[in-house]
Write a structure and sequence with these properties.
The protein has 458 residues and is α/β, with parallel strands linked by helices. The chain folds into three domains: 120 residues, Probable tRNA modification gtpase trme, domain 1 (Gyrase A, domain 2, 2-Layer Sandwich); 130 residues, tRNA modification GTPase MnmE domain 2 (Four Helix Bundle (Hemerythrin (Met), subunit A), Up-down Bundle), CATH 1.20.120.430; 159 residues, Rossmann fold, CATH 3.40.50. It is 44% helix and 17% strand. The chain has 14 helices and 13 strands. Helix 6 packs antiparallel against helix 7 and helix 7 packs antiparallel against helix 12. The longest helix has 30 residues. The protein is flat and about 85 Å long. It starts with 8 loop residues before the first strand and ends in a 7-residue tail after the last helix. It is found in: Cytoplasm. Belongs to the TRAFAC class TrmE-Era-EngA-EngB-Septin-like GTPase superfamily. TrmE GTPase family. It comes from Candidatus Ozemobacter sibiricus.
Length: 458
C-alpha cells in the first residue's frame, strides 16, 4: 500500500455557485475504472486513452438517467498533478448538477477528498516540495497581483533550489566530519577547522539572507500593517476613509471619537496594506478611552510603519508631544502626515524633524497620491519591491528554518572548543531542519497541519 492507501478520491474543485462550467477532480488508481462505469463517450475512441479529452454523458447505472453532458480529461500517472491517475470532469457549473456528478462518483467507489488532499498526494508522490505547496496556497489566496507574482515565482522552484544547494553544502561537511570520526585509521584528510569555519560562516550568511527573504515574503503575503496614530481630532479616521475610498470609520468634530482600533485592507500597487485606525493618544477621559489608547500602543508594536497624523491648522500641543514620545518608544519607522493642509498652516515640517513629512488633506484628497508614493517608497527601501527574490514559508517551515540557523550558529560558536562529534550533531540538526522546510524530511503530523489550510478540491 502506498502513502495514500490506494484510495481514489473525488471532489468538486470549483467554488460553490453558478458558472458556465464546474470541475470535479478524481485521483487514484481506480479513477479511470470508476468513470468507465458511468461515462459514455460520444466518439469511437476507447476510454480512457493517454492524456486526452473525451466528450460524452454521465449516466447513473441505478436508473439509467443522464446526470450531465461532460468533458472528461484524463491524466495517466505519473504525468498528473497528484502523480496518480487523474480524471477531470468538466460539468455544467450548477451546484445541483455538480452535487449529482460527485454523488455518482462516490457511489462508484470514490471517497470524498479531504481539504488539501490533492496537494498532499502531489507532495507525497514527489510532484511538489513543501515550498511549492506553500506557494500554491498563496496563489489561491492572493489578493494583489504582486502576491500572485511572488507565489508563481516560488512555484517555479527557485527558492527550493537555493535552499537545496545550501543543504547540499552542509551535507558535504557533515559527511566529511563523520568520515574522520568513524574511520580515523583510514588516510582521510584531517578537518581544517579554519576552512570549515569559513565555509560554515558562508552557509550561515546564505541562510540569514534566505530568512530575511522569508520575513519580507511574509510581509507581502500578509499585508503591511500601517498604523494611523496621533492625538484626538487630527483626522486619522478621515485619512483612513480617504485612503479606502469609502466612509468606513466614524468621523466627528468631537475629540475622542474613535475608541477602538479598526483594521481595513487596501491595495497599493503590488502591495496589500492593512490600515489600522486607532484611538487618539492623550490622557484618557474614561475607562473605555484608556482601553482604546492601550490598544493603540499595542498596534504600534507590530506595525510595519506608523503614520503620525498631525493637524496642520493648529499649533502643536502637549498631546502632540506625547504622540512623538509614544512613537519613539514603539520603535517602528514613522512617516509624519500633516493633515488639514486645506486650512492655513500653523505647523511647519521642520517642527516634525527628523521624520519625513507628507502634507495631505483628507477632506479634499490633496496629497494622498504623494502619501501612497511615500508608503511604496518605504516598502521598496526595506527590500519589498523585488518580489522575485522573496520567499513564502508556512509557520512550521519558518520554525524549522530558525532551528537550522540556531544549530549552525552553535556549531560555528563551538568550533575550536567543542568535540567534532558534537559539531557533527549540530550539522545534522541543521540539515534535518532544512529538510523540513523543503519537505525532504517531514513527519505526517506536520503534514496534517500544512495541508489542512487548503479547501476541498485543492
Ligand atoms: N478642514 C479639514 N478638516 C478635516 C480634515 N480631516 C479631518 N477633518 C475634520 O477633523 C475632525 C476630526 O476628524 P476625525 O477623522 O474624526 O479625527 P480623528 O483623528 O480620527 O479623531 P479621534 O477619533 O477623536 O482621535 C472632523 O471634524 C473632520 O471633518 C481635513 O483634511 N481638512
Ligand atoms: Mg478617529
Amino acid at each position: 500500500m502506498g502513502p495514500t492507501r490506494g484510495e481514489t478520491i473525488a471532489a468538486v474543485a470549483t467554488p460553490p455557485g453558478r458558472s458556465a462550467l464546474g470541475l470535479i477532480r478524481v485521483s487514484g488508481p481506480a479513477a479511470f475504472d470508476l468513470l468507465r462505469g458511468v461515462f459514455i463517450p460520444r466518439g469511437k475512441r476507447p476510454f480512457p486513452a493517454r492524456a486526452a479529452a473525451f466528450v460524452g454523458v454521465l449516466r447513473d447505472p441505478a436508473d439509467g438517467e443522464v446526470v450531465d453532458q461532460v468533458v472528461v480529461t484524463t491524466f495517466p500517472a505519473p504525468h498528473s498533478f497528484t502523480g496518480e491517475d487523474v480524471a477531470e470532469v468538466s460539468a455544467h457549473g450548477n451546484p445541483l448538477v455538480l452535487g449529482r456528478v460527485l454523488g455518482l462518483l462516490l457511489r462508484q467507489g470514490a471517497r470524498a477528498a479531504e481539504p488539501g488532499e490533492f496537494a498532499r498526494r502531489a507532495f507525497l508522490h514527489g510532484k511538489m516540495d513543501l515550498l511549492a505547496v506553500e506557494a500554491l496556497a498563496q496563489v489561491l489566496n492572493a489578493t494583489t497581483a504582486g502576491q500572485v507574482r511572488l507565489a508563481l515565482n516560488q512555484l517555479e522552484g527557485l527558492p527550493t533550489r537555493r535552499l537545496s544547494e545550501i543543504r547540499a553544502r552542509l551535507l558535504d561537511h557533515h559527511v566529511r566530519l563523520e568520515a574522520t570520526l568513524n574511520f580515523p585509521e583510514e588516510a582521510i584528510d584531517e578537518i581544517d577547522e579554519r576552512r570549515l569555519a569559513r565555509d560554515l560562516a558562508a552557509v550561515l550568511a546564505d541562510l540569514e539572507r534566505f530568512a530575511a527573504a522569508a520575513r519580507h515574503g511574509d510581509l507581502v503575503a500578509g499585508g503591511l500593517r500601517i498604523v494611523l496614530a496621533g492625538r484626538p481630532n487630527t483626522g486619522k479616521s478621515s485619512l483612513l476613509n480617504a485612503l479606502l475610498g469609502r466612509e468606513r470609520a466614524i468621523v466627528t468634530a468631537v475629540p475622542g471619537t474613535t475608541r477602538d482600533t479598526l483594521e481595513e485592507t487596501v491595495t497599493l500597487g503590488d502591495l496589500s496594506v492593512r490600515l489600522v485606525d486607532t484611538a487618539g493618544l492623550r490622557a484618557p477621559g474614561d475607562q473605555v478611552e484608556a482601553l482604546g489608547i492601550d490598544r493603540t500602543h499595542r498596534a504600534l508594536q507590530s506595525a510595519f510603519l506608523a503614520l503620525a497624523v498631525f493637524d496642520a491648522a493648529t499649533p502643536l500641543t502637549p498631546d502632540d508631544a506625547e504622540v512623538r514620545h509614544a512613537l519613539a518608544a514603539a520603535g517602528c519607522p514613522v512617516l509624519a502626515v500633516l493633515n488639514k493642509s486645506d486650512l492655513p498652516a500653523r505647523v511647519t515640517a521642520a517642527e516634525l524633524a527628523p521624520w519625513p513629512v507628507v502634507r495631505v488633506s483628507a477632506l479634499t484628497g490633496e496629497g494622498l497620491e504623494a502619501l501612497r508614493e511615500a508608503i511604496r517608497g518605504e516598502a521598496a527601501s526595506r527590500g519589498l519591491s523585488q518580489l522575485e527574490d522573496l520567499v513564502l514559508l508556512g509557520a512550521q517551515q519558518s520554525e524549522a528554518l530558525d532551528r537550522a540557523r540556531q544549530a549552525l550558529r552553535r556549531a560555528l560558536d563551538g568550533l575550536g572548543t567543542i568535540y567534532h562529534d558534537m559539531l557533527s550533531v549540530e550539522l545534522e540538526e541543521a540539515i534535518r531542519a532544512l529538510g523540513l522546510v523543503t519537505g525532504e524530511d517531514v513527519d505526517p503530523h506536520t503534514l496534517d497541519r500544512i495541508f489542512e489550510r487548503f479547501c476541498i478540491g485543492k
